[in-house]
Amino acid sequence: MDCSIEERDGMSYEGMIIRPPSEAYSILLQATVGCSHNKCTFCGTYKDKRFRIKDDQTIFGDLAWAAKYCRQQDRLFIMDGDALIIPQPRLVAILTEIRDKLPWVRRVGTYANSKGIKMKTDEELVQLRELGLKIIYLGVESGDDVTLQKINKGATAQKLIDMGRRVKAAGIKLSVTVLLGIGGRERSLEHARNTGRLLTAMDPDYVGALMLMILDDTPLGQEYRAGRFTPLEPLELLKELREMFVHTDLSGGLFFANHASNYLPIKARLPHDKAKTIKRIDEALSGQVALRPEWMRAL
Prior knowledge:
Elements: E1 27-30, E2 32-33, E3 52-53, H1 56-69, E4 75-79, H2 88-101, E5 107-112, H3 114-118, H4 122-130, E6 133-141, H5 145-150, H6 157-169, E7 173-180, H7 188-202, E8 206-211, H8 219-225, H9 234-246, E9 254-256, E10 267-269, H10 274-285
Parallel strand pairs: 1-4, 4-5, 5-6, 6-7, 7-8, 8-9
Antiparallel strand pairs: 2-3, 9-10
Helix pairs in contact: 1-2, 6-7, 7-9, 9-10
């Protein structure tokens, strides 16, 4: 295979590129374009992309370029939305190439959804971990089945729990994202409690709680404009965060709510920091702690 880099001026990217905050300084390898599901009502990230897996020449050419020019970065993140869906032989070949050509890379990560995880056997997940896949980022959004159906997530709470447990059983770190406010005012309490229960049952290594920001060019944006979805006010979002946090018990994981979308930055190690974090939320609810101003919030 020709992986010549002489004619390249960088790695090849298509469309808007996103990655988790913890992958800010990682080598970004776009092995897939878009998201294989791409039906979540709140998400507009991949609406301009038709899902496909890039050809091997492009992927391996990018790795050849990275091997020459990215020698200071010891993490690599495989994009786009759910690279785990790549068939096992091709994904094994990509991870093997990373290991052989970029031996200084100590951690490979990727986004995944429940469908992609389900397509891998337990033995295949272990094989990926042995080849360097050390962390998977799973968008859960909610543990409330009514909410999951409304946002067209394509999975039940139990399926998400099962797939998350399989990732952890394979020895791969699991980072889960949940969305505050995604149930709207109507399902706020149920969304909060059931999401806390899901997190307790799944027991991920990391939880990132983001606050919903409604995008105009999404089905949820259309529901909002039509008056069929009522978003939560800042204090209501904080109450939802408190309820979710109260119902979340992790064996040693980190619970973050410090994304740019959040009104109150939180970083807590559970169970150690549970009581003091609830106290901080209560202080914010009573006005003793200032919230992040609206103009500072972002996706």
